[in-house]
Amino acid sequence: MAWIYLLLAAFCEIAMGVSLKLNEGWTRLFSSIAAIVSWLLSSYLLALSLRALPVGMAYAIWNGIGAIGLVITSALMFQESIGPFRLACISLVLVGLVGLRFSE
Questions:
Q1: pLDDT band at 103 (very low <50, low <70, confident <90, very high)
Q2: CA Rg value for the chain
């Protein structure tokens, strides 16, 4: 169950990043509320996952999934560039996450 909590926390982290982009400096009410709620939910789910997972590994995986997911989501939603160098860097992060997962 801890891994499910961690994945859900990472998805909430992605939602928070998108909400922060959409809230235009905290000037849009709905996006601002969504950012705060997704941040709180992400933190809560991460804390639940830490009951069974080591904090360093869980935090790194949570952050990495959030970062990769946000790069991909922002490319799709906001047409941000995602060239070969960025893809290579994302691949390195992904390899690191997989390595952390299986290093237990």
A1: confident
A2: 15
